[in-house]
Design brief:
The structure holds two protein chains of two kinds.
Chain A: E1 2-3, E2 14-21, H1 27-39, E3 42-53, E4 57-66, E5 70-71, H2 87-97, E6 102-108, H3 116-122, E7 139-143, H4 150-159, E8 164-168, H5 176-190, E9 198-202, H6 208-213, E10 218-220, H7 226-245
Parallel strand pairs in A: 6-7, 6-8, 8-9, 9-10
Antiparallel strand pairs in A: 1-5, 2-4, 3-4
Helix pairs in contact in A: 2-7
Chain B: H1 8-30, E1 32-34, H2 35-44, H3 57-68, H4 75-86, H5 90-99, H6 112-143, E2 150-155, H7 160-173, E3 177-180, H8 208-225, E4 230-234, H9 240-249, E5 254-256, H10 261-266, H11 270-287, E6 290-292, H12 298-301, H13 308-324, E7 332-333, E8 335-337, H14 347-361, E9 368-370, H15 380-396, E10 401-403, H16 416-432, H17 436-439, H18 447-469, H19 471-476, E11 496-498, H20 506-513
Parallel strand pairs in B: 2-3, 2-10, 3-4, 4-5, 5-6, 6-7, 8-9, 9-10
Antiparallel strand pairs in B: 1-11
Helix pairs in contact in B: 1-11, 1-13, 1-18, 2-3, 2-9, 4-6, 7-8, 7-16, 9-11, 13-18, 14-15, 14-18, 15-16
Classes of the chains: A alpha/beta, B alpha/beta.
């Protein structure tokens, strides 16, 4: 199936854009904005608003129709295929398959000082009505907080015999998070720990696809809660356990 | 102003408890010094610059005394003794020291009076400069009176030159206050980087040279816009008093300076932070810099609805610490935030209750009101709506420092246009609702009054608990933001020293002695 954006009619291809140009407001800027729209593949780009930002910049809102269409049958996406259970079901899974508590440790690693993400997943309170891992029976959750160096994180993982490692990354300016996340995988491999743990990352700009690319087992972006992370990790641990049995 | 009909006795008693809490800690503070306090003494004596390995000279000197002398007597004593013994003036001594031809430690100690005599000329140069900065700021504010609510935006490109472009555009569009966000993790450096910087992550390094460049740029816009554009940076971290000194010298106007933020959110040792915040706030008081406290951060970790009283309790404590450091109310930018989940029914009313309550309890304080960040999803259109609600709350309750929310919060550091749109949003609401707060009163038995009463009562209870166990213990129990910190844990504890009975700090003595008409 081929698709185009939908404005108010099928296949009209309508999109909205907004951007700033480093030029004083005026007819020249408006024409530049229009031409930019054309070069981006818009038919009949229309500059619906133009405002001055200071003396040397101007802001544009542009509408237009894209000529491009997407053939969905050609696309491949990395998606987490395991189901998400609610808290009680996750707790039951753990009780049925393990005779011990599972250890989850999490941190905002590297220089990242943001804890909103990891707190939403781990803290008792959770986020938007979804309780965090600390509240799960059968899970021992350790939230190490922010700015945890990878070396310290690994040391703690060893000390606590962690089953699941959760990495949160918020600052993504200049791709600082990528370097940090890759470094962790390399360190885990050097310590021969990579296969012993479920390695999961999360953050506003993290996708499952990116996570897989970097050598993680899964990645969770916006709109995911503790039960998504817990379901994935517990099912993975069960799968691993069964594999080693055979 | 008493629209909420708050219990004045309970407010008074909360202040009494907070004072007791602060004085208890102040006793500890007065008996201790830290490496950054001593480095600040160096800076206020005019010592600046780095050696060939980029180590700041104040760090070289303090480390030297810590290893080869006795830092618990104060670095002033060692420096004065070295100048006396070598017969050199301070700049010549530092040059010779860097060449390795003179030693800092090991000279016979001079007397207390001699320390003052020898160092006074150097520190007076710096204090004259700071005094001049105050006068310049006052002249600006006299020429261009400031609005009741000031619009505050951040720039965070990592490159000071790029920051300047964005800051100027924001000021022209209507911003009154510009904050240059620091590079991530600078708060954990036990030194202040040196020179002009063009690379940083999530922000720009706070250096004296960067301060100077931005101040000059904003002075330029101030003159063309006929509004004094204030400059903000961040003191909290391992170098609180050093940043305060640099800010004083380069005429910053506002510093983020919380008595507990570093402890709670950066895992800096509590002994260290309490001692550091005192000296830094003394310098802020002397230089007329408004402090901003960080209570808003509690609500990004804890729930804004159930933990609202911890914000108020902390504001009472921050206020008393600020009084201990000689700061008048009008320099206390106590922080709070609009962070209740908008999915909660009547969340906006609870926000109004909190903001109005803050305004009434701290009528003189230039309150710093922070925008929603926690419940921003990445849907920029929804975020714009949340920010509009926040802007309405700001206007309705006469907040002072209005930190604008960005529609792209949680996506990237703000684009030029994000900031522009945020300013337009705030300006439209400010203008269309200009006299709104004069027109409204609140039902005495209504949701808003009752909520404010509840929060005040809970804050009072919490202060009673903290006063009973001491603030140190309360932090160990995780009273604020649900984060527990131990007395001897965290970063920077090795930099804390108990003062020797003969401890000398002529700089602190001087600013403690000068009571400025703030």
């Amino acid at each position: 199936m081929k698709i185009k954006p939908y404005g108010d009619t099928s296949n009209d291809g309508k999109v909205q854009l907004s951007f700033t140009l480093p030029i004083k407001i005026g007819a020249l800027g408006m024409e530049a904005a229009k031409q930019l729209g054309k070069q981006m593949g818009l038919i009949d780009p229309s500059v619906v608003s133009m405002e001055a930002i200071g003396e040397n910049f101007s802001f544009y809102i542009v509408y237009g129709s894209v000529t491009h269409q997407i053939d969905l049958s050609l696309l491949k996406v990395a998606e987490i295929t395991t189901p998400t259970f609610d808290k009680e079901a996750v707790e039951k899974l753990i009780a049925d398959h393990f005779d011990r508590d599972l250890v989850f440790i999490g941190a905002s690693t590297g220089t990242d000082a943001h804890t909103v993400g990891i707190d939403a997943i781990m803290n008792m309170k959770g986020y938007a009505g979804h309780y965090g891992l600390e509240r799960y029976a059968g899970i021992k959750a350790y939230n190490l907080g922010s700015q945890v160096p990878n070396e310290v994180f690994i040391r703690e993982a060893k000390r606590l015999h962690a089953d699941v490692l959760l990495i949160s990354q918020t600052v993504t300016q200049k791709d600082v998070h990528l370097k940090n996340m890759v470094e962790l995988v390399e360190l885990l491999e050097a310590e021969h720990m990579r296969n012993d743990v479920i390695l999961v990352c999360g953050g506003a700009r993290i996708s499952h696809e990116l996570a897989k690319e970097l050598g993680y087992d899964a990645g969770f972006g916006p709109g995911k809660f503790a039960e998504d992370v817990a379901s994935f990790a517990v099912l993975e641990l069960i799968r691993k356990k069964n594999k080693t049995k055979k | 102003m008493n629209k909420l009909n708050l219990d004045q006795n309970m407010i008074q008693d909360s202040r009494r408890l907070a004072k007791q809490i602060a004085i208890d800690v102040q006793k500890f503070i007065d008996q201790h010094t830290t490496v950054t306090v001593e480095r600040t003494v160096c800076r206020l004596l005019g010592i600046d610059g780095v050696d060939s390995f980029d180590v700041p000279i104040p760090n070289l000197l303090v480390d030297d005394v810590q290893n080869n002398g006795d830092l618990s007597r104060g670095i002033a004593l060692t420096i004065a003794s070295a100048l006396q013994a070598t017969g050199k003036n301070l700049p010549d001594f530092i040059s010779a020291y860097l060449l390795g031809t003179v030693k800092l430690c090991g000279h016979p100690y001079v007397s207390c009076d001699q320390v003052r005599q020898i160092l006074d000329p150097y520190m007076q140069v710096t204090f004259a400069k700071i005094k001049e900065n105050r006068d310049t700021r006052d002249a600006f504010l006299l020429a261009y009176p400031q609005p009741k609510t000031e619009i505050y935006v951040i720039v965070a490109t990592g490159n000071i030159y790029e920051d300047i472009v964005q800051a100027k555009a924001a000021a022209t569009a209507g911003a009154d206050i510009i904050a240059v966000i620091r590079s991530t993790a600078q708060s954990l450096l036990d030194y202040v980087p040196y020179g002009i910087t063009t690379e940083g992550f999530g922000g720009t390094y706070a250096t004296q040279a960067n301060f100077k460049l931005m101040r000059a740029a904003l002075d330029e816009v101030s003159k063309t816009e006929k509004r004094y554009i204030k400059l903000v940076n961040y003191a909290s971290g391992l170098c609180m008093p050093e940043i305060a000194a640099m800010a004083a010298i380069e005429r910053l106007d506002v510093l983020l300076n919380d008595s507990m933020y570093g402890i709670i959110f950066r895992d800096i040792n509590m002994q260290r932070t309490f001692v550091d915040q005192y000296f830094s706030r003394r310098i802020n008081a002397y230089s007329g810099v408004v402090i901003n406290t960080g209570e808003d951060n509690y609500l990004t970790t804890s729930d804004a609805f159930t933990q609202a009283h911890t914000v108020l309790a902390s504001q009472f404590i921050n206020e008393q610490f600020a009084y201990c450091a000689g700061l008048p109310s009008k320099l206390m930018g106590l922080g709070h935030a609009f962070e209740i989940d908008p999915e909660i029914e009547n969340s906006f009313l609870y926000e109004i209750a909190q903001a109005q309550m803050c305004r009434e309890i701290f009528p003189q304080a230039p309150l710093k009101y922070m925008p929603p960040t926690k419940h921003i999803t990445g849907n920029i259109f929804r975020a714009y709506e949340q920010n509009a609600l926040f802007n309405i709350a700001t206007t309705m309750t006469d907040q002072s420092i209005h930190l604008l929310g960005m529609m792209t919060e949680a996506i990237h550091t703000p684009f030029l246009s994000d900031r522009y749109l945020a300013i337009q949003n705030a300006k439209m609401i400010k203008k269309s609702m200009k006299s709104f707060s004069d027109e409204v009163s609140y039902r005495p038995d209504g949701l808003i009054c009752n909520r404010a009463k509840d929060v005040l009562r809970q804050a009072h209870e919490l202060l009673e608990e903290i006063a009973q166990m001491s603030l140190f213990k309360a932090l160990e129990q995780g009273v604020f933001a649900d984060i527990k910190r131990s007395f001897t844990g965290g970063k920077g504890l090795t930099g804390v020293l108990e003062k020797h009975p003969d401890y000398q700090n002529p700089v602190l003595d001087y600013i403690e002695g000068v009571s400025h008409e703030n």
